[in-house]
Amino acid sequence: MPFDFDAVIHKQYDIVPLDRDFIPSKQVAKPHILWVGCSDSLTLETFTLDVLQDEIFVHRNLGNILSNGDLSSESAVAWAVDLLKVEHIVVCGHYGCGLTKSNDPKALYGWSKDIARLHKMNEEFLGEVKDKSDERSHEHRLEEIYTLAEAGWLRRQPNVKEAIRERGLQIHAFVYDRETNSAVRLVEIDEKRET
């Protein structure tokens, strides 16, 4: 299922500081969290969340991408959801991601084609509003909506939908900031109303 790009660009969300105990540790060496992160984010999952290393099943790739049909990503999600029965999936982007900054649709043999399309639509959406001097905020917003888009795509996958419905699997969107060595949660406005 591809992105609904229009919905992604218009997402309303809040940026909430991430408490390290947001997902409590069970103090048991068994994964209950799938962490999907970027290969170059330099974030330690166990620094971001105060859990044991054995409580996290980690999958990393360029740009924390799940939606491009990559077999490795699909296998990691299937393994974690269907066999490990994880209770949480974290999609963690990071500010300053080289892949998100690139808007070349040919880059990496189509790996980043959805990001390129988001770049174009984001430029059109921000249009006159975008202050050219505030490039950093613009890049941060692009990383945030992209991370939310991947989390949203994940929620629509049949096995994930079933796990959400049957056992309360939760999907979270985080973004790590190297400058502050901290992470934030991205909470969609509709999601906030439900909690």
Looking at this protein, list some descriptive labels:
single chain; 195 residues; alpha/beta; Beta-carbonic Anhydrase, Chain A; six-stranded mixed beta sheet; 6 strands; 39% helix; 20% strand; globular; zinc ion binding
Q: What can you tell me about this protein's structure?
A:
Helices cover 39% and strands 20% of the residues. The chain has 195 residues and is an alpha/beta fold. The protein has one domain (5-12, 26-188): Carbonic anhydrase (Beta-carbonic Anhydrase, Chain A). A 6-stranded mixed β-sheet has the order 1-6-5-4-2-3. Strand 5 (170-177) and strand 6 form a beta hairpin. Its EC number is 4.2.1.1. One of its GO terms (biological process) is cellular response to oxidative stress. InterPro entries: Carbonic_anhydrase, Carbonic_anhydrase_sf. Its cofactor is Zn(2+).
What is the chain-wise order of helices and strands?
Answer: HEEHEHEHHHHEEH
Rounded average pLDDT: 82
| Radius of gyration, in angstroms, nearest whole number | 16 Å
Helicity, in percent? 25-40%
- Strand order, main sheet: write it out: 1-6-5-4-2-3
Topology of helices and strands:
Blueprint: H1 5-9, E1 13-17, E2 33-38, H2 45-48, E3 56-61, H3 71-83, E4 88-94, H4 98-101, H5 113-126, H6 135-155, H7 158-167, E5 170-177, E6 182-188, H8 189-194
Parallel strand pairs: 2-3, 2-4, 4-5
Antiparallel strand pairs: 1-6, 5-6
In short:
The protein has 195 residues and is α/β, with parallel strands linked by helices.
